[in-house]
């Protein structure tokens, strides 16, 4: 499946893509014009998005209904005042009540509910359940006041035919829009590979940003630990001198301060793990409340890695204070005030 986006698209462009002699691998085509509005039923209302689309939407999107039916081609082309509710919209507006046959209003325009979509969750960062569907013609004329389409989605018979179908669609649109130079295209064609590439790029960029932020946080935190340990060494100079006078070796002193430094960062790491788990849990709850499928999960490996990095950070940044403490002369240390 892929899509064509731009404001110069028309319903006639979508019809041309259905021509099997021009685009033989296209299975289904659905044109779209979208907007947001408040849908009202009796004294209840819900803010949602509406998709003015075509009867072929379920086939293009592989969507199914839990109740009722989708509007047909006659209702679509005739601009019938019918509506199909997304799963979440139905529950917010009607609860457990039967919605089929009821009249709802969008911008004072009445629509009869003829179907309820099955719950789909989130696809490509879009909540599929928080929207409603109406025939394209009435959506364009009465709700949006436009004649163009916002985008067209197509379903191809096989993924192997994406490239050739993309070329077919580009040829059709260039001929219809009288474009001879591809550089002057007034449309863009995107397939699933493009979408995956964009999402991968965003994910990789976010991952790199988080790694950089984590690295900066570790360095800043490590410097803070080193300064704290240096202050500790200064405050405990007489204690260090006394321990050395009683037989403690430089190695004993060094190991003691390295242990203390590691213990401090370990405690900080454990607090961070607990705080991160709480934030992740709350984020998962918030995402699920918006219809996103976000499972709460903590990887044991991640916990072990966090603990290990915390201890290692403490040891690395505690080396200088530890060696400084180990090199103190016991006589001078005992004289320290």
From TrEMBL:
Record localization: Cell membrane
Any GO MF annotation of the entry: transmembrane transporter activity
Keyword match Signal: no
Domain MacB-like periplasmic core: 8-171
Segments passing through the bilayer: 208-234, 263-286, 298-320
Limits of the ABC3 transporter permease C-terminal domain: 212-330
Protein name: Multidrug ABC transporter substrate-binding protein
One Pfam family recorded for the sequence: MacB_PCD
Membrane topology annotation: Multi-pass membrane protein
GO CC field: plasma membrane
Alphabetical UniProt keywords: Cell membrane, Membrane, Transmembrane, Transmembrane helix
Family according to the record: Belongs to the ABC-4 integral membrane protein family.
InterPro entries: ABC3_permease_C (IPR003838), MacB_PCD (IPR025857), Macrolide_Exporter_MacB (IPR050250)
């Amino acid at each position: 499946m892929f899509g064509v986006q731009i404001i110069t698209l028309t319903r006639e462009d979508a019809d041309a893509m259905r021509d099997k002699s021009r685009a033989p691998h296209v299975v289904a085509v659905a044109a779209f014009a979208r907007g947001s509005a408040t849908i009202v039923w009796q004294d209840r209302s819900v803010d949602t998005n509406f998709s003015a689309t075509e009867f072929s939407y379920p086939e293009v999107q592989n969507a199914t209904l839990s109740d009722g039916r989708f509007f047909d081609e006659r209702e679509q082309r005739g601009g019938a005042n019918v509506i199909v509710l997304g799963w979440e919209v139905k529950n917010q507006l009607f609860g457990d009540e039967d919605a089929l046959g009821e009249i709802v209003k969008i911008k004072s325009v009445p629509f009869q509910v003829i179907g309820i979509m099955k719950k789909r969750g989130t696809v490509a960062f879009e909540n599929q359940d928080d929207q409603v569907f109406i025939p394209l013609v009435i959506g364009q004329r009465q709700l949006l006041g436009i004649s163009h389409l916002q985008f067209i989605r197509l379903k191809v018979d096989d993924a192997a035919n994406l490239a050739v179908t993309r070329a077919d669609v580009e040829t059709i649109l260039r001929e219809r829009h009288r474009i001879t130079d591809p550089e002057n295209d007034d449309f863009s064609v995107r397939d699933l590979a493009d979408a995956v590439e964009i999402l991968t790029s965003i994910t990789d960029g976010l991952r790199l940003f988080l790694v950089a932020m984590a690295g900066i946080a570790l360095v800043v935190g490590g410097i803070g630990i080193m300064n704290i340990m240096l202050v500790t060494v200064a405050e405990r100079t007489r204690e260090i001198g006394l321990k050395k006078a009683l037989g403690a070796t430089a190695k004993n002193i060094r190991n003691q301060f390295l242990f203390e430094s590691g213990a401090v960062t370990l405690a900080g790491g454990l607090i961070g793990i607990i705080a991160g788990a709480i934030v992740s849990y709350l984020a998962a709850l918030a995402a699920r409340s918006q219809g996103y499928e976000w499972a709460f999960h903590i990887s044991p490996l991640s916990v072990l890695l966090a603990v290990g990095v915390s201890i290692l950070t403490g040891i690395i940044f505690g080396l200088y204070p530890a060696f400084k403490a180990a090199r103190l002369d016991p006589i001078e240390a005992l004289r320290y005030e």
